Here is the input.
Amino acid sequence: MLRSIFQSGPELKSPRELALMRESGKIVAEAMRKCREMARPGVRTIEIDQAVEAIYRHYGATPLFKGYPGPKIPFPACTCISVNEQVVHGIPGQRELREGDLVKIDTACKLNGWCADSADTIMVGEVRPERRRLVEICKQVLQIAITEMGRRRWWSEVALAMQRHVVSSGFSVVEQYVGHGIGRIMHENPQVPNFVSREMKKQDFRLEEGLVLAVEPMVNMGKGDVRTLSDHWTVVTRDNMPSAHVEHTLAITRHGVQIITADPLPPTSTVASPAAAAQPLA
Ligand code: MG
Ligand code: MG
Here is the structure.
């Protein structure tokens, strides 16, 4: 989310409201699972978007990106699909995925009035080790946020831990885009930066029960600077080096941090594992 749209303080959600958000989160998780299954060499990004749209239609959920107002044109799809040096907000189209690509897929829906938002970086086929490391670090940064949110008092403490992990790994944090509160609407207060700065510290907020945040680190292999392409949406790295982006909708509850967009099913493997093959016939 662009940093300039926020004004008032965060709205806290009740356990009942969190349960409703989880229903929306499960649909987003299913959409993300479908994306991971489909992201193979030769697949066009529009085909992935259409599959996600079909899942939302099946559940009667509203896709939140389609028609989202932009500076020039509304966003035309249900997913943002951003490949390699594209950071976020890529428009699905005829582009075919290729072996070695890093594909960032971001999607959100609303069900019964409540929103959920999630993103993942998917590696297509064999990916070069440095790119794999970028994805690994980005996922670790989200995990750091999940862990630290449960034990810190202020968001800036979490953001600092996230930023330190990126920088100590030799990568950069994208600062033009940040996470956000989420609930009845997709982009609520507060702004949720993945870094700490004097300006952002003025808008620091307390981590308390009922707070729901879409936390979405964007990590660049090169410098953190980004720019927007002439399609008015696609954000790319200025140095054309690859970028990774992951996101979960996270709630602070009495029992700890709940991942609203967690996949309820165990991860699927496309390759039969030796352990599975060794199962005795019963
Ligand atoms: Mg998102
Ligand atoms: Mg988001």
User: Anything to note?
Assistant: The longest helix spans residues 15-38. The helical segments are 15-38, 45-59, 129-149, 155-168, 198-201, 274-277.
